Amino acid sequence: MRQSLKCNLVITHTVSRQHNSFFHYDSNAKAYFIEQLQTCKNLISATTTHSNVVKSGLSNDTFTTNHLINCYLRFLKINHAHKLFDEMPQRNVVSWTSLMAGYVTCGRPNTALWLFHQMQGTLVLPNEFTFATLINACSILASLDRGRRIHGRVEVMGFGSNLVVCSSLIDMYGKCNHVDEARMVFDSMCVRNVVSWTSMITTYAQNAQGHHALQLFREFTHLRMEKPNHFMLCSVISACASLGSLGSGKVTHGIVIRLCHDANDVVATALVDMYAKCGCVHYSDKVFRRIPNPSVIPYTSMIVGAAKYGLGTLSLQLFQEMIDRRIKPNDVTFVGVLHACSHSGLIDKGLELFNSMNGKYRVVPDTKHYTCIADMLGRVGRVEEAYQLAKSVHLERDGYSMLWGTLLSASRLHGRVDIAFEASRRLIESNQQVAGAYVTLSNAYALAGDWENAHQLRSEMKRTGICKEPGSSWIEIKNSTYVFHAGDVSKYSQANEILSLLKELKHRMKERGYVGGTTGLVFVDIEEEAKEEIVSLHSEKLALAFGLINMPKGVTIRVMKNLRMCRDCHESFKMISDIVERDFVVRDVNRFHHFKNGLCTCGDFW
After folding, report:
1. Are 443 and 521 in contact (CB under 8 A)?
2. Which member of 195, 301, 523, 539 has the greatest number of CB atoms within 10 A?
3. Residue 262, CA distances (Å) to 182, 233, 280 in order
4. Is 295 helix (H, G, I), strand (E, B) or coil?
């Protein structure tokens, strides 16, 4: 009642003082309405205040209308805001920039860029916030050409050293995968703050340059200018996760605790993901259990982490726990549980969950879910069903390659050369995963004993210059990373020790019945003894030998690999773990393998 009376008094007072002057307004009334617009909690309050603004005659005041526009944008009412904008007799840079930002927030960055084009036909000049908004629109679209054009205008108008604009440019170039250009902007800045440092660190982390991200973070902490915020720490944790750098991850976790960011949901979720990707699911679980009320995101991270580690039952338990707590799973959650079922042989449960996605949980299956099902069917030998599924689903370019690539691997594994040929043909024709398609198909021919076609495919690869991604593995010791490539130890001073240890281990394995495994690997004009030598020098074996030499007994040896672990290396790691009585954890491109006492957590199902 008092607020309504106060509002009426202000309106009456305002109207009485206008004296027929269109733009003469009472400053007290403006201040009152602006305060109301800044503090209103819902749309009803906003529309009520809007109505009172109109009654007071302030609807043509640019300053007040800008606050009205921003108020509607807070409630995501972009059409209301645009209508107000269109009715304004005079618009300033705040009017234009607010509406552009609103469209970016509502997921319509193209409209924001169109508005800027319209603005260029007026006398209103953009400011640093206008440019930051436009650059953000280009980031969302990953539109490098438009981003560069905006960058050019930034330089022309003298904003090339502006802190806000430069931080946005770094982010944009990072989203467009042009890290060098992002670094050029960063290096050109006279003054940097925690936002600009975070943008550059995030750019490195998101573009598979985790080492550079960690190095830059060390530089930032060495300067002692500002404390890292939770956004920066999330990016650093993400870099540690991508590298599988447990040591750096633990150090960053310590900083998180010291700066009291451990209660932050986003940071906690990043830590859950990092520990899982470093092969420490028990640490992930400890961090997860300390989150007071976990949302779908930390639950999903934990489910995916457990799935990658071969703990399918744990993933399903976490999923059920989510449902019991009335937390709605999202599309990524289902990727996690389906992956868990696939890698744990829980085929019936996986199909049950897949079939319930749309009807029960209102999550529409997409590329990744169909790929999980094809993988699930293929792993248990139901390749024909996976093939029929792949033919029945119409997917876009990237999804197409994921699904048929999965089917290709399954058909090779189970000797279905006919399906392997069809999958390879589709991938090669779509210019997707070409090298992998050639190699997998040649291996499928080799498994079937069709050496003529196997050799012919390899010759075709040489003729056309198609190269398979070389195998590489890396291991972290005392915060230093050591990278190994298949068959090459020349750059290490301990090369002779590595080769000698592998030879000794191979002899001890043969005493236990090891016969070596070159099955399914295509070798042209190479004697059997040489084939064994090549397999014995796979990158993960070199990394393991290096770890055994340089890491004390009792410490788990963790090896990261860029490709799928081959069957021979898998068998070797199992036997070696029993021989030397040590634990090994290997993260390959698909999942984790924890070797202990001659066994692996994957149960030989990967």
Report:
1. yes
2. 301
3. 30, 10, 18
4. coil
Residue 224, helix vs strand vs coil:
coil
Q: What is the pLDDT of residues 194-211, one digit of tens each?
A: 999 999 999 999 999 999
144 vs 321: CA distance, rounded Å: 43
Convert the pLDDT of each residue in 468-508 to its tens digit: 777 889 999 887 889 998 888 888 899 999 999 999 999 99
Can you give the residue range of the structural domain that contains 510?
Answer: 472-600
The DSSP result for 468-521, as a single string, is PPPPEEEEEETTEEEEEETTB-TT-TTHHHHHHHHHHHHHHHHHTT-----TT-
Enter the tokens of residue 538: 């796979």
Rounded distance between C-alpha atoms, residue 593 and residue 606, angstroms: 9
Q: To 10 degrees, the CA torsion angle through 516, 517, 518, 520?
A: 170
Taking the C-alpha atoms of residue 484 and residue 254, their distance in angstroms, rounded to an integer, is: 30
H helix and E strand count, the chain: 31, 6
pLDDT at 33: 66
Sheet holding 599-600, edge to edge: 480-485, 472-477, 557-561, 584-587, 592-596, 599-600
pLDDT attached to residue 427: 79
Query: Taking a C-beta distance cutoff of 8 angstroms, is the pair 336, 303 a contact?
Result: yes
CA-based nearest residue to 388, from 413, 417, 423: 423
Q: Are 202 and 168 in contact (CB under 8 A)?
A: no
Closest CA to 309 of 271, 281, 345: 281
CB neighbour list of residue 300: distance below 8 Å, 6 or more residues apart: 329, 330, 332, 333, 336
| 513 domain residue, yes or no | yes
Using a 10 angstrom Cβ sphere, with 0-12 exposed, 13-18 middle and 19 or more buried, the burial of residue 19 is: exposed
CA dihedral (430, 435, 439, 442) in degrees, to 10, reads 50
The answer as to whether 7 is a domain residue is no
Residues 6+ apart with CB under 8 A from 190: 161
- Alpha carbon distance 568, 519 (integer Å): 9
Phi/psi-derived region of residue 584, left when phi > 0, alpha when psi is between -120 and 50, beta in every other case? beta
Q: How many domains does the chain have?
A: 1
Domain assignment present for 540 = yes
**Helix, strand, or coil here: 558?**
strand
* Structure-block tokens of residue 60: 């043509």
Closest CA to 586 of 469, 436, 468, 475: 475
d(CA 492, CA 71): 63
Domain for residue 208, yes or no?
A: no
Please tell me what DSSP assigns to residue 190.
S
pLDDT beneath 70: ranges in the chain: 1-27, 30, 32-33, 36, 57, 59, 397-398, 432-434, 447-448, 516-536, 605-606
